[in-house]
Automatic annotation (TrEMBL):
Biased amino acid composition, Polar residues: 78-92
Skewed-composition ranges (Low complexity): 95-109
SUPFAM superfamilies from the UniProt entry: ACP-like, alpha/beta-Hydrolases
Name of the protein in its database record: Carrier domain-containing protein
Organism: Zasmidium cellare ATCC 36951
Span of domain Carrier: 1-78
Highest taxon above the source species: Eukaryota
Sequence segments annotated as region (Disordered): 78-111
InterPro entries for the chain: AB_hydrolase_fold, ACP-like_sf, PP-bd_ACP, Thioesterase
Length: 378
């Protein structure tokens, strides 16, 4: 049984290893979530034994994978964390399709990732420390969370934060998975979220995938996500990744994220292309009911990119469902198979003006703003 002073010393040793102040540790957090990978965990266990004089086994962080369970062990708890309620379930999801495990990357998700050339987050409205509700919005294939900067004021008690891709302006380095991208963002989200408040996450297009995976990370660590907002985000179970041919054709015709007659900048096209590569390898897994946000809100557009595909001159294969999703007008879409991934939630459906690439462009962004205000500012 270690004294309080010795336990503090142990936590200080761990904190130094992962560059986190011990007072920031939360009992429900897992060591892996905090960045203590297998090799570092073994070395840290040795440091605890040598520096603090506590005889811990080499696999102590596997036996007691949460902050709370390790503290209990150090205080003299005899059982392993198998019965610890603070330990997140290892079976937090089940795959809908057999295949390789998702590419989560190394224990430190930033290992080998170049330093971002832009901030990971931008506060677009309000202040996170004083807002009643903080809304995190993940970017579409362009990678630019600043694209949400065109939104009208959502509410006086709402803080709006846009997440920028770490690979913005360096898309050639964007080769990691959707799941790893979520791990690159989750620390930023947790840093900006006021403690004790449930999370509100959302994303447009591929941003829906990112926000979904961040929900998984947060809830696995014991956090509460109150709301997930999916903005014209086609479920990966139902829709393919956009073929490279379509990206090329949309770019050639000036339809790729274009505003009026202005063509999309090269960096946007490059990042979009890299995003498509990651989406092609992405296959989401089901969240358990206990980890599914109670509120899932769908926002869809009804317009296609063109009025008539034959008249547009686009050389694309219209047998691809995601191509039809982008180009053709639609009816009132509903859950589009997202309900298989998010069981037990309350679903709502809203419809805005414009097409898929006009979502954050005036005047259509005003339509999006009104919907978001109704969802989060009431």
């Amino acid at each position: 049984m270690a004294s309080d002073e010795t336990i503090e010393q142990c936590l200080q040793i761990i904190g130094e290893a992962i560059s986190v102040e011990p007072e920031e540790f939360q009992d429900h957090e897992t060591w892996k979530f905090l960045g203590l990978g297998d090799l570092l965990a073994s070395a840290t266990a040795s440091d605890i034994k040598n520096q603090a004089g506590v005889d811990v086994p080499p696999d102590v962080f596997s036996l007691y994978p949460t902050v709370g369970s390790l503290k209990a062990f150090l205080r003299g708890g005899s059982s392993t964390s198998n019965g610890d309620a603070s330990r997140p379930s290892t079976a937090i999801h089940s795959p809908l399709r057999p295949g390789a495990a998702p590419d989560l990357g190394p224990a430190d998700p930033w290992e080998g990732i170049p330093k971002p050339k832009v901030p990971l987050s931008v506060v677009l409205q309000g202040k996170p420390e004083t807002a009643k509700t903080v809304v995190f919005l993940f970017p579409d294939g362009s990678g630019a969370g600043t694209s949400y900067g065109t939104l009208p004021p959502i509410g006086k008690d709402v803080c709006l934060i846009g997440l920028n891709s770490p690979f913005l302006r360096q898309a050639q380095n964007f080769t990691c998975s959707i799941e790893r991208m979520a791990r690159l963002w989750v620390g930023e989200v947790r840093k900006l979220q006021p403690k004790g408040k449930p999370y509100v996450l959302g994303g447009w297009s591929a941003g829906g995938f990112y926000s979904y995976e961040v929900v998984r990370l947060l809830t696995a660590a014991g956090e509460k996500v109150e709301r997930l907002i999916l903005i014209d985000s086609p479920c990966r179970l139902e829709y393919e990744a956009l073929p490279a041919q379509v990206v090329q054709e949309l770019t050639r015709k000036g339809l790729m994220g274009a505003s009026g007659e202005k063509k999309a900048p090269e960096w946007l096209v490059q990042h979009f292309t890299s995003t498509v590569g990651s989406v092609d390898k992405y296959w989401p897994s089901v969240l358990s009911k206990e980890h599914t946000p109670p509120n899932v809100n769908f926002i869809w557009v009804k317009e296609g990119l063109v009025k008539s595909v034959p008249e547009s001159g686009l050389q694309v294969d219209m047998n691809i469902k995601v191509t039809r999703f982008l180009l053709e007008p639609r009816g009132n879409l509903q859950t589009e198979h997202w309900e298989k991934l998010l069981p037990g939630a309350k679903y709502t459906f809203d419809y805005m003006t414009g097409n898929h690439f006009q979502i954050t462009q005036p005047p259509h962004v005003d339509s999006l703003g009104k919907i978001l205000s109704n969802l989060v500012a009431s």
